[in-house]
Amino acid sequence: MALEASASQASDSIHANVLSQARLACYKARDAFYACLEKESNKKPTEIAYVGLLYPVECKKNREAYVKQCRPTWVKHFDRQYCAKKRVQRLLDDNESRRGV
């Protein structure tokens, strides 16, 4: 009995480490892709991602790495978050220009 419990705990810690490393790899790939989007924001977006996110061809390699490293549901979630954040920022920027201060 004790041997089985010990083996189960060791197995759980291994899975936790693997999941943690995969999550960190996903976050790193995501951050690289969104950094590329910000850096190349002046270029015309020609590629289409989930939820209508458009990005320039210069970020295609970063996008491929991001999609490869992350679960599809995570990619959709992060893309939605990014689009929502950009939408709010655009609205705030429009309000600032309309104030006439």
TrEMBL record:
Which InterPro entries has this protein been placed in?
A: COA6_pln, COX6B-like, CX6/COA6-like_sf
* Gene3D superfamilies with a match to the protein in the record: Cytochrome c oxidase, subunit VIb
- What is the annotated localization of this protein? Mitochondrion
SUPFAM superfamilies per the UniProt record, alphabetical: Cytochrome c oxidase subunit h
- Per the annotation, which location comes first and is thus the protein's main one? mitochondrion
Q: Which GO terms describe its cellular component?
A: mitochondrion
Keywords in alphabetical order, please.
Disulfide bond, Mitochondrion
Q: Check the UniProt entry and state the signal peptide residues, or none.
A: none
Q: Report what the protein is called.
A: Cytochrome c oxidase assembly factor 6 isoform X2
State the organism named in the record. Olea europaea subsp. europaea
